Structure formats: structure tokens, C-alpha cells
Fold this sequence. Notes:
This is ABC transporter oligopeptide permease OppF. It is found in: Cell inner membrane. The protein is built from 10 helices and 12 strands. It is globular and about 70 Å long. The chain has a single domain, classed as 3-Layer(aba) Sandwich (Rossmann fold), CATH 3.40.50.300. The strands form 2 sheets. It has an 8-stranded mixed β-sheet, with helices on both faces. The protein has a 4-stranded antiparallel β-sheet with strand order 2-1-4-5, with helices on one face. The protein is α/β, with parallel strands linked by helices. A hairpin with a 2-residue loop joins strand 9 and strand 10. The chain starts with a strand and ends in a 7-residue tail after the last strand.
Amino acid sequence: xxxxLEAHDVRRVYRLGGGRxxxxxxxxxxxxxxxxxxxxxxxxxxxxxxxxxxxxGLEPVDAGAVxxxxxxxxxxxxxxxxxxxxxxxxxxxxxxxxxxxxxxAGDSIAEPLRIHGIGRAAIPERVRVLxxxxxxPEQAAVRYPHEFSGGQRQRLNIARALALxxxxxxxxxxxxxxxxxxxxxxxxxxRDLQARLGLACVFISHDLAVxxxxxxxxxxxxxxxxxxEGEGMAVLAAPAHPYTRALIDAVPRPDRPLPPPLQGEVxxxxxxxxxxxxxxxxxxxxGRCREEAPILRDIGPGRKVACHFPLI
Length: 312
Ligand code: SF4
Ligand code: MG
């Protein structure tokens, strides 16, 4: 499979005044191949949403580079930027985000088509095909957002995101606002669309049950950096990083009592701890961890970890 998206040492810093600097993304490198789904996993505030936006050029980067199909998003001409916008799309947690309450569903889905100069005559048929792709009937086109359930609204958002035939969709917590029963339907829809359209997907989630169903590969983020990366099932079955282990252990299971939770809160990204950023919460931390930051290194085929003492 060809590499579609590459991030090289991407950094995103927010200057908050008073000399305070928040490192939302602290040097992330990753890649996504055509048709593949990569899950970005981590607790809220770990930088995954900021990174997700940066991956499709919705957020500038302060250092490093994002390459889509070999083109650096930071140096595109405005014409290229416009052309590429349709090929990289975002789906948000908020199911109301992309739907105008005063417009019909069909109108909202048609908007990107109009902006990108698709002929008026071709639009109704394209809208019908898009609705069908996301499992909604043709008549949905003339209804308004309030007439749909949350799950149906997310289907409409996905239809709109697919309007210009993207190669990559970044989905930021796309099911976490939905009922659990509906979550599985939307996850299945994503998987189905990936298979049918060859769509690559960056799936941002804090929910490992969702990630398990969705991800070909997983990148685990902690305080703005990737701490572990690998094939989805391999990471979930045998995590190498103590933080990944703790995330997996925190998921309730019927066959065992919950192990003790991680100690402490996620430290503020305004003042990340020295050495390994996870050391204040890590049950395996020793002196070296407090002084020397582990780098993300290969520990097997396609498998990386940023820990001095990986668990495997
Ligand atoms: Fe824990 Fe040390 Fe590994 Fe960091 S480097 S995760 S503190 S064992
Ligand atoms: Mg977020």
C-alpha cells in the first residue's frame, strides 16, 4: 500500500500570554497508507484533536511538516489548497457541526459540491448516491437536521464529508456523542465505506472498545507525543508501553475486577515533567526515567515504543 499521509516531527505550540507556552503537539511523526485506518488514542487534552486538524491542514504547524501525497501542506498555493481540500475531510464529534439547521440535508450535502464547481444538473444524483452510501433514503434530502436522530445526523455529516470523493477522512471522536447501540452502527459504516471506497481514515478516540473495531493500526498519545504505535490487535493484546497497559486495564471486563487506576492526573501540558513525561504516573519508573526522555524506537516490525523498559 502506498503512503498517503506523512507527518514529520510535527509541533504545535500555543502561546497563552504571561510567557506561558502550551505544547499541544510535541514532535509527532506518523504515516497513513491508502485505505488504512489509524486510530489516535489517548485521554482528552493529549493533543490528538490538534494533531488531527494539523494532519489535514486545518491547523498550522509550528515546526515539522505534513505531507499529503508527497505535497507539503504548509507550502501549497491557494489553488492547490482548494483542490486538495476535497481529498481530505474531517468528521467531528458534534453531530450538529456541519449541518445548517435552516437548510435541508440535501442542501448541506450539496454545498461542497457547489463550492468545488460541480454542475448544477449533476448535483441531485450525486446527493442521492451519497445518501445511499451512508444508508439513508433518497427522501432524506428534503428533510431538515432536527428531523433526524443523532446517528442519522452523523450519517449526514459523513455523506457531506464524502461529497468530493476524499482519499482521507479524519474523524474526531465521531461516535462518542452517540448512544452505545448507535455507536456500533456508525463504526460499521466507517469500516464498510473504507472497504468500498478505499478510504484512509484517522480515527481519533479515547474509547478502546471503539478503537478495537476500527483500527488497522494504533498510535497512543500522551501529553502531545506518541508513546506507542503498532498493528491494532497486537498493541491491544500485548501493549509495550505502561501507559497503553493502563488504558487497556481501565476498560471494565466481566472476567476480572478493575485493577487499581493510574495514580495522579495527566500533568499540565504547560509544564510537562522532565525525562519521560509519563514518569509521575508510571508504576515502573526509576531514576533514569526522571532524567532521560525515551525516544520512540522500533521494537519489532511496525511496532514502536517510547519507554526505557518496554513491557514486551
Ligand atoms: Fe515508565 Fe520509565 Fe517507561 Fe516512562 S520510560 S513509561 S517512566 S518505565
Ligand atoms: Mg479532542
